[in-house]
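ARCHIVE CARD
CATEGORY: sequence design from structure
SOURCE FIELD: tokenized fold
FIELD CONTENT:
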């Protein structure tokens, strides 16, 4: 059994989490354990299951059939009660709150390169400053930015090479 597997078992770490690396420094009496997660795994399948069962009756992710006709988004206080109940039924930790769901969801959409205007629209915020706190900076966003920059640089290089290879007209004297 590998050390990482042993630490994972001893610490009770379960999927999607895993022990990615471990290093023991005997001289300094220090043990470092690096945690990671399996890409593509779902963190809270219990909550996703409950959300998947809700009727898709409007554009917002969670809406209720209005008593007076049209579907309307849940009020924030009602959505908080729903999340508390789902958390209780699923036996999840207290830090799973409506606010945590909003932050986590917006960060995931930031990773998917949702625009700032899109974040504002989903959150119902009128200013970019109010919405920015919801999208945490992640490695996925840094990687996306680096890829876009690299594509831009490659396009510039291609343009420069093309313009250097074009025949030039002589200036008349």
């Amino acid at each position: 059994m590998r050390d990482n597997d042993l630490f994972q078992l001893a610490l009770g770490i379960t999927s999607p989490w895993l022990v990615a690396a471990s290093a023991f420094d005997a001289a300094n009496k220090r043990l470092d354990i690096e945690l990671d997660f399996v890409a593509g795994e779902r963190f809270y399948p219990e909550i996703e299951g409950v959300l998947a069962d809700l009727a898709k009756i409007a554009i917002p992710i969670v809406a209720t059939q209005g008593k007076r006709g049209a579907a309307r988004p849940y009020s924030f206080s009602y959505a908080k009660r729903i999340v508390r109940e789902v958390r209780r039924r699923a036996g999840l930790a207290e830090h799973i709150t409506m606010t945590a769901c909003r932050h986590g969801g917006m960060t995931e959409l930031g990773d998917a390169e949702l625009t700032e205007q899109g974040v504002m629209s989903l959150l119902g915020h009128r200013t970019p400053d109010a919405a920015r706190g919801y999208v945490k900076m992640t490695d996925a966003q840094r990687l996306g930015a680096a890829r876009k920059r690299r594509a831009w640089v490659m396009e510039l290089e291609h343009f420069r090479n093309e313009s250097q290879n074009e025949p030039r007209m002589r200036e008349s004297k």
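CARD ANNOTATION: Residues 1-41 form one domain. The chain has a mean pLDDT of 80.
SHELF: design records, drawer C
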